[in-house]
């Protein structure tokens, strides 16, 4: 089933980042706002039909330096699953296209 998921790891603590608010936007329209579970995951941010186009994930991370991290990505194939993980530390972060 097509979906967008995420997973946040806190490398400072060596643990999943639980309770982090993540928002999914298409353009300026907020599609979903959820919090990561105890394993730092949100299994499906899409509430409704996945459409082609540009999307933006906003991570409201608790960090001494970052307060909000945004990742913009494009969906061309709505039959696929899109997993966008975030690895965050107090002064560094990275993301990638997961599986």
Q: What global shape is seen?
A: globular
Overall CATH class: Mainly Beta
Enumerate the spans where pLDDT stays under 50 for 5 or more consecutive residues.
none
SSE sequence, one letter per element: EEEEEEEEE
Q: Return Rg in Å.
A: 13 Å
* Number of helical elements: 0
Helix content: under 10%
Beta content comes to: over 45%
Outline the biggest β-sheet.
Answer: 5 strands, mixed
Distance between the termini: 13 Å
Number of domains: 1
Remind me, CATH topology?
Immunoglobulin-like
Question: Would you kindly provide a written description of the structure presented here, covering whatever features stand out?
Answer:
The chain is mostly beta strands. The chain has a single domain, classed as Immunoglobulin-like (Sandwich). Helices cover 0% and strands 54% of the residues. The chain has no helices and nine strands. Strands 1, 2, 5, 8 and 9 form a five-stranded mixed beta sheet that branches. A hairpin with a 2-residue loop joins strand 3 and strand 4 (29-35). It is globular, with a radius of gyration of 13 Å. The mean pLDDT is 94.
């Amino acid at each position: 089933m097509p979906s967008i998921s995420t997973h946040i790891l806190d490398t400072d603590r060596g643990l999943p980042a639980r309770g982090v608010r993540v928002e999914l936007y298409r353009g300026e329209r907020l599609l979903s706002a959820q919090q990561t579970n105890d394993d730092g995951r949100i299994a499906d941010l899409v509430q409704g039909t996945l459409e082609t186009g540009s999307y933006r994930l906003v991570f409201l991370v608790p960090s001494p330096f970052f307060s909000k991290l945004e990742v913009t990505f494009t969906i061309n194939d709505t039959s696929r699953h899109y997993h966008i993980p975030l690895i965050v530390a107090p002064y560094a972060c990275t993301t990638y296209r997961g599986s």
